[in-house]
User: What shape does this take?
Amino acid sequence: MAEVRVTGRDGSERRLEASNGIALMDTLRDAGTGVEGTCGGACACGTCHVYVAQNWVDKLPPKSEDEQMMLEAIGELVEVRSTSRLSCQIQISDTLAGLALEIGPVP
Ligand code: FES
Assistant: This one.
């Protein structure tokens, strides 16, 4: 279980309890943060886009080639930053306790 600090698109802040072993996207979607996860975590829609806090970038597993390609694709439509991640590609574990992120814009 990891507590995740989430800033919404409207600037509101929330703390969510995320269960180990599931994708971060599932927690964000189920909590009504605006993350849709339309493709169900197949790295094919970009609707789970988040900006992670700068100090968390290097603590997360590196992006796969598929995630990088999807981020480049949505970058044609929305702002993608060096801190952008697809939350469906981040599996929750205890090591993510305190992860801070902002819900990103989606295509
Ligand atoms: S849920 Fe579709 S890319 Fe993450």
Observations:
- The radius of gyration is 12 Å.
- The chain has a mean pLDDT of 97.
- The pocket of FE2/S2 (inorganic) cluster is lined by residues 25, 37-39, 41-48, 70, 86, 88 (CB under 6 Å).
